[in-house]
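Subgroup meeting minutes
Present: P.N., E.W., G.H.
Scribe: E.W.

1. P.N. recapped why we're keeping a running log of single-chain structure predictions: easier to compare across weeks, and new members can see raw inputs and outputs side by side.
2. G.H. added today's entry (599 aa).
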Amino acid sequence: MSLVAACLGVVLTASSDCAAAATLRDAHAPVYEVSQGKPHATMGSDTLILASLDDSYYGLAQEIAEVEGSTVVHTWADALAGETEFVLWVVSPEGMSDHDLVGLGLVRKERETAVSLGIITGSSMEVARQLWLRGGQAEGRLVVAANAANPSGNLRSGMLVFGPGGIAIRSLTLANVQRYLQRADYFTFTGHGGPRYLRLDEITVFRADQIPALSPIVVATASCNTVRIWEEDSIALAFVDQGAAAYAGFAYSPNEGYLVGEFYGAPFRYTWPGFPIGHVVEIQNKGAVKGFAQFPYYYLLGDPRIALQDEAPYRLLEDKEEAGARRLRYEGAPEGFIPLRISDGARYRFVEIPGVTSSWELDPFYNSRLQMVDFGDDKYLLFEHAGGAFEVLLRERPPWYWPAMDFLVDSLDHTLVYLLQTGGDVIALFTGAVAWLALLRLLRRTRRVRVYLLASVLTAALVACLQGAYALVRLGEVTVTSKMVAFSPLAVLGMFLVTAAAALVFLASRHWAPRIAALVMATAPTWASMAFSLALVGLVNNLTFRPKLGAGIYNYSLAVLPLGTLLVQVCVMLVCFSVAKVVVERLQLRQEAPVGSAA
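Output recorded in log:
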């Protein structure tokens, strides 16, 4: 969150942008026929070349294999059979289809070890060859993060330019996008999109035919359906054809907020030969599968061995074993998302970074500040860091209490903080209003209305205050989404209305059936969100994607996540309502007791 705060709060001068611009490369520099930049992360035995025998680009696959001393394989079963770290998939646009991407995604999901995949393609075999050759020319001096407006993420439209002279803020316009695409080394975009375009705002669309001539830039987007290179006027293919060194994007529609480092994070920025961009994409896919995706479908066009920096962005000070854990201390890290490689760390499945977060490989839910993946014996972490020194604690398993506690906190954060800013506050208000309208008849028929009403209002005020306090305390700690979260007063008001109505039903009832109905009413915003998510995912998967792709693309993680909150709410409501009922009944007994009974 410190990076976002800095980006939105820093007042910038024109001189900082000029200093950044002074180091920019000529946007019209010629495309080199041979790589003249940094060496690849690795070549040879750690890399396999995949190509179909009947693909028109098969000759290029043979050429790459000969130059790199690699082997050409013809099926994904062969490519994924061993412990290969990198796979270059050489394929023509017409040689790729939904069938290929879905099948590959399902196979990769079940694979125990990771693989860093890059697709070598282009509108012609020569363009594909140039894409492969440009890998060593990519750099990371000037980085641009462009974001379309995102009301549910509390984000305004804009561009952040990270250069040697500091950070500059620019408006998101078509002219600025074209300008910085020609000048930047690494450009990210988050917003709506499609196979042929990126949408900058409700009116402005950036189309494939508007991409200017590019130097070897690395482009990454979080938009829908951009990596569909077999479709006409593909924007991903256009970036490659215009000279980009790499393009990362989704083949299908994502659920925004579950791609590690999106918005302002620029997760490729500090990649280095020991932790290249293909590994970051693999980590982002792991996070997406925990967040919403049924299988990984975030793909990289270009060489996965590209690194934007020459060396690791940190220095190791200490690495020692103590009390069944491994503790590592580092210094000199910049602010942002840090790609950390830990040698011989794969056997540790639990990671804690004090001051940042902790995560477990078997954690079923998304963590926006830390994701991990294993390649061979090494562990690769991508985590958000405020800059400076940091410490990493590795354990083979989490503390016994951690899984349950983490699930409960994630559930509460998702339901009581994040979900409310995506329309949950309006649902709570609507539910409360409807509940009170339905209770008007009950109020007219119930004796001692004032006592019940006062008790229900006080109980609801307590519950609403508890929810509001939790949301305020957790604002800067939420990790279940990459979106910015904000406090919602409407959500607290909605919770007050719903709880007061439910409490009134509970207090006025003499039997358990109405009391159970009161608990159902009090927790309606939570269980309704679960039911809606389950139904929506089921309908979209089965009516839209399964008939076309043979598989659904979304999982049910977000539908299950509120379950912990629902259990907590039932317990809290039951206790509060029961205590209120006991108090009300005792007050009634005192009022009904005869005046002279004590004698």
